[in-house]
Amino acid sequence: MTSVAPAVGDVAALGYLSMTALEVAAPVVLVAVLAVVGAWSASRGRDLYVRLLRHGLIAALVLLVPGAFLIGWFIAFDPETISGITTTPAQQTSWILSMSLFGAGLSMLVGVAAYGLGGWVSGALSNKRRYKLIIAIDGPAASGKGTLAKRIAAHYGLGWLDTGLLYRAVARDVVVKGGRLEDLGAAIAAARAIDATTLCDPHLRGPRAGDDASMIAKIPEVRAALLDYQRTFAQQGKGAVLDGRDIGTVVCPDARVKIFVTASDEARARRRFLEHHGRGDTITYEELLADIRRRDARDSNRSVAPLAAAPDAILLDTTDLDADQAFVAAMKIIEKKVGK
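The structure corresponding to this sequence follows.
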């Protein structure tokens, strides 16, 4: 029995020694490719990654286990065939088949391990990136997302950015410099030179500023110029809360929590009317309702980053909720995702 192990080793060694440099390099390259595929698969979705990993492992075991069993049988009951002392063609064929099955299963198992390692590394890096609590809150105008986002940010001690103010500020800067909102060059230049310290300008909260911002937001180059600022803001400290129209879909697609806030047109117009009335603005409910519907159509139908809920966003309808009720509902969504 002691001579069987060296015989098996000799067969394996002879096979490797007879391989060319290309044949040796090919498995290494294949393992590297499988690791990359595993990382890609895990980044696309854990369900797909786990399913492929499970199927690969089953396929490897289907080959490996019978091969190992047959090799064990030869070691125990027919060591002569392994040593090549006395053997028939049928026995030799069975032995070669056993070695082939075992070798194929072992190779596939190595490939599965490489695939799994790639997915594990991808998951580890993803978890490191996702350690920050980034909350994306999207929704149409006057849905209550801004008030909600500000309150959530204060609760968690995170930075808060009303991304709509960026577009309002760009529109304001274009007009202040004597430009027209339809002037692409002026709009792009203003976006690239945006001064975030001016976002507290009270004029940015007016009805005209919102309508101007909706026009500016249609320009792809303007959105691209403001994208880096928004993403950099999201990565600060422990994370941040951003509200807008494309946070969960474009700006922060990897946000740990995505909430899409909505409400009926009438409820949103009523809220906006009370807001402007409190500031002494002279604008009617009907004008605000028409403005909201016009902005919704413009934001939803633009070619770049249209207003839309991310596939994994949780819908929060605030039509019949006041600010406190909306906050409680949002906190339940967040705590279900990340814990208390």
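Residues 89-129 form the longest helix (41 residues).
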